[in-house]
Amino acid sequence: MNKNILLCGVGGQGIVLASKLIAQAAMENSLPVMSAETIGMAQKGGSVFSHVRIGSDLSTPMIPKGGADVIIGFEPAEAVRMLPYLKKDGTVIVNSCPTKPVTAMLSASSYTGKEMLAYLKKNVERLTVVDCERAASEIGSLKVVNMILLGAAAATGELPISMADIKTCLAKRLKPQLLEMNYKALEYTLNVKG
Amino acid sequence: MKTQFLMGNEAIALGAIAAGVNAVAGYPGTPSTEVLETVAKNNNGNIYVEWSINEKAAMELTAGAAYTGARTMVTMKQVGLNVASDPLMSLAYLGVKGAMVVMVADDPGPISSQTEQDTRAFAAFSKLPCFDPSSVQEAYEMIQDAFRYSAEYNTPVFFRPTTRVCHAYASIQVKDPSDYVINKPEGFIKDTSRWVIFPRTTYLSHIKIEERNTLLQQVLSKYEKNTIIPGSLESPARKAIASHGISFSYVQDSLKNFDQRPAILKVATPFPFPEQLALEFLKNVDEVLCIEELDPVIERSLTYICGKHHLKVNIRGKLTGDISPAGENTCDSVKTALIKFLELAPASDIPDYSDAPALPARPPVLCAGCPHRASFYAVKQAMKNTKSLFCGDIGCYTLGNAMPLDMVDTCLCMGAGVNIAQGIGHLEPDTSCFAFVGDSTFFAAAITGVINAMYNKADMTLIVLDNSTTAMTGHQPHPGTGIRMMEFANGSRPEKPIDVANRINIEQVLKGIGLKTVKTVNPLELDKAISCVSSVAAEPGVKAIIFKSPCIVLEKSSSSAIVDPIKCINCKKCIRELGCPALTTDTDGRLVINQALCTGCMLCSQVCPVRAIDRKN
Fold this sequence. Notes:
heterodimer; A: alpha/beta; Pyruvate-ferredoxin Oxidoreductase, domain 3; six-stranded mixed β-sheet; 9 helices; globular; B: alpha/beta; Rossmann fold; five-stranded mixed β-sheet
C-alpha cells in the first residue's frame, strides 16, 4: 500500500528538509520512495510544495488530486490551496500562523489566516492545528517550524515512519549542538497534548 | 549494485561518471544545474569539470575535449542551447572522436524559463540523436546509453530530461565503481579534413548524416527503452496511447485505476524516430492518443508514418485539441484526457473545494534583505520625475519587476537589456536609459553589449548588481568569484577562492573597455547610493555603477531590525516603498518585522520618516 504525503507552504519555510527527512527515514526502513519539490524562482516567497510517495507500486513522484494521505501545511492558505489533493478521510496538519504575501500587504487585503482555518475545520475531519509561532518562541528558535510540523504529523500515526526514525535521520544531518532543540521541536505537540 | 535516493540530476551525473566521462562543462540554469554540481562533488580528481562563462564556451570546450578521444558532457537549460547553437550546428557535421553528450534540460510550464521550446525539435533541426528519459532510474541508465551511441556513431547526442525528471527524487539502483567504464583518450590527432569545416566537408558530411539517421531509425527501433507495452485483454478495441518522458509515468499511474489498459508506445528517442517499431504498433490500432509535453513531436512523426505507409489510423493529441498546446501535463490532466479518449465514466470521488475563501496570490519576490531591492530603490529615487527606462536581465533581479519596486521595463534574454537600452536610447534621445545586469550575467552575456555601446557612442548607464554569486540557480561560482569547480574534487568544499589572482574584476573590465566613469557603491547605504546614481546618470555617454553587496543567502546575517511601537506612526511607508517580505502587520494592523526573515539590512530604517526602526541589540 502506498502512502502519499504532500508538504506545502511558502518558499523559505524549510519544507525541503522536512520532506528529505521523511524520504530518508523511509529508505532506512527499506521502503521505496519517490519525491518531487519546487526548485527555482518560486522558492523566493512563492507557493511551494513537496510530494513524497512511499511504497512499492510507484510510477511517478507526483501525487494526483485526491491522492494525498497526509497534507502538512506550513501556512493556512497554502493548506487550503492543496486540499484538492487530499484523499477522502485524509489527515491535515496545519500551522495556524499566516505568511502574508507582499501583494496582500500592498493591497490592504483582508487575509488573516483565520478564514482558512475555519474552512479547514469545516472540511477536514482529521485536522491538527499547531500555533507554530507560539511553539517556536517556547522552544527558543524561529527556525524549527518544519520540525514542529513534522513531529505533529508523526504523532498522528499516519506517516509510514516513526518519530524515532525521524530522530535517527536528523542526527545524521545536523550538528550535535542543534539536535536537542530540534528534538524538542519534533516532540512539541506530544508534550502539549500530554 | 546498490540503492541510492537520488535527484534526477544527481542520477544523470552519476550515470555520466559510470559511463567514463572525462570532461564536463556547462552554465547554470534551472532545471539543469545540479548535474554539473554533482559531477564536481563526486569527482575523484580525474574528471575535468568547470562552470564555463556561458553555454557557447562550454559547448566549444567539451567539443575540443572530445576531439582528443575523451568522453565529454556539456550541461545547460533549454534557453542555453540557443546560446550554444552556433558551435553545435557546425559540430553536427564534424562529429567527435570520443563521445559527447549534450545534456539540455527542458522546462514545460514553463516553471523557471522564458520559453517553452522543445529540444526534441532542436535535435531534428540539428540532425542529432536525442534521448528522452521518463524517470530517475531510466535517466541513470539512459545517459550511459547516450554515451555508448555517441561513441559508436562518432556524433554528439542530445540527452533531454524535463523539470519533473531533473528534480524528482527516487530510490534507484546504481552501479558499483568497479563496474564503471574507463575511457583513456588517445589524444588529438591532426587531420584538417576532419577537424576544419569547409563547404565541401559539410556537403559530404550531410550525405553521411542522412544515411546514418536512416540507419538509426532501424537501430533505435530495437533499443530496449523504445517499447510497446501491450494492452490488457479488456482494453477497448484498437485504441492506444503514445507517450514519452514524465507524461509516460503519468499515463502508467492513471491506468492503474482503470480496468481497461490500452497498449502504449513509449518513445525514448524522438529523433531519429523508431519508425519500424512505430509501424508495428500502428498495425493493430485504429486510433492513437499522443500524450506529450511541449511540441507534438511524436504526434507529427506518427501522422507522417501513417501517411507514408497509407495506414488508416486516427492520430490525436495537441494538433487535434485533445492535449493542451502549452504548459506541463499533470497526473490529473493526463487522467482526464485518458478518460475522454477511452470513453470512461469521469471520476466523481474528488470533493469540491470551490467554496474556499479567496486564496492570496504569491508571486515570487526578492528575499528579505536582498541588496538588489536597495539598488533598485536607489535608482528609482534618483530618477524620480525624469523620463527614464529600466532594462532588466535574467536572474534574481528579474524580480525587481514586482510591485512596489516596478523597476523592470523590459526583459528578453540574458544580456539583452544592455543592447535594448541602446536601441531605445538611439530612437528616444531624451530618455535616460539604464541596463541592469548581474555579476554572473555580466560575464556571460553583457560584455560585448558594453563594447557595442562604447563603439557606437550610445548614451546609457550600466548597473551591475554584484552579489558575488549566481544566486537564482543556487549560488554557482563565476569568473568574478575566483572559485573553480575542480576545487570541489575529492570531497573538498572551498568557501573562499583558493586562487585569488584569478578573480576577474568587473570595474577593471569596464575601465579596460574605455568607460571613464565606473563607480562602486554599497546599495545599503541609501543616501550615498542615490546621490551616486544622480551624478553618474547626468554624465554623457556610457557609464557604469557597480552595486556591490553579498547575497544574503550566502552571507548569513545574525542581526535584525525591530520597530519601536512608540515612535512608529504606522504610516506603512516602508511596506509601500520597499515591499520587503519581512515587513508585515500584526493582528491589529500595526507594523511588525518578521524576525525569522529579517537580515538587518536596515534599508527600511533609512526610508522611515520618523526613524522608528532600529537594529535589534
